[in-house]
Write a structure and sequence with these properties.
With 230 residues, the protein is of the alpha/beta class. Helices cover 42% and strands 11% of the residues. Residues 1-5 have low confidence and may be disordered.
Length: 230
């Protein structure tokens, strides 16, 4: 009889906004208003397509798309207006279905997991608290912990390092094509969720190994990702 493999379960690296917490459209609205305040009238659907990038890269990407020149100071100001607008909308943030249960189950199975968010810590605190997480926990990685934000792999590399796993032994879970592009560049397996507004086809073309409806759906299919029971 063959001996059962002793290989450990893969670790999980989670995006937050749109992946574990239902906050994508709060970001869309806050950004749309911040851009308009800075003289860039951008339709909300265009704003949505860049959610998941860091603030500075986000503004510059939209400016290029609209053939607009933008100074560093103007980009920084819009980023600050976005933070203020988002903060005003975080009072009633809700977790997505199955988020807490998924994290609890991974913990029960002794699977390592970490949070890797493009937001700075002060912006991420409301979402983390909605999940019942301590923002000072070691497995929380924010924009301050990485040189470059998504779609660069730095955040996921930092998160993997924080929980002492190699990126190739981790699964990145995200809701945007930027998460999955960063996962590929980190040499990690990518899993997509439909909770951020991207289609299954878009997520798969960006590199998702599997796509699930939400965290609850992912929880029901952990076996597809190679997790072994206790």
């Amino acid at each position: 009889m063959p001996r059962r493999s002793s290989a450990p379960n893969p670790a999980f690296l989670f995006d937050v906004d749109g992946t574990l917490v239902d906050s994508v459209y709060e970001h869309v609205t806050a950004w749309t208003e911040a851009l308009a305040r800075g003289g860039m009238l951008v339709p909300a659907w265009r704003v949505h397509r860049y959610i998941g990038m860091s603030g500075g890269m986000f503004v510059r990407a939209l400016a290029r798309e609209m053939d607009r020149s933008l100074s560093d100071s103007a980009a920084k100001q819009m980023d600050e207006w976005h933070k203020q607008g988002f903060a005003a909308r975080t009072k009633n943030l809700r977790t997505l279905p199955g988020s807490k249960e998924l994290l609890d189950e991974l913990t029960r199975l002794k699977v390592r997991w970490a949070i890797a968010t493009s937001g700075k810590l002060d912006s991420a605190v409301p979402a983390l608290r909605a999940l019942g997480l301590n923002e000072k926990a070691r497995n929380i990685v924010t924009r301050e912990d990485a040189k470059l934000a998504k779609p660069d792999p730095d955040l996921f590399l930092a998160a993997a390092k924080r929980i002492r796993v190699k990126p190739q032994h981790a699964i990145v879970v995200g809701d945007s094509v930027w998460d999955l592009l960063a996962a590929r560049r980190a040499n990690a397996l990518g899993v997509g969720l439909l909770t951020g507004g991207y289609s299954r086809d878009e997520l798969e073309r960006a590199g998702a190994y599997r796509v699930y409806s939400d965290p609850a759906d992912l929880l029901q299919h952990l076996n597809e990702l190679g997790l072994r029971p206790e």
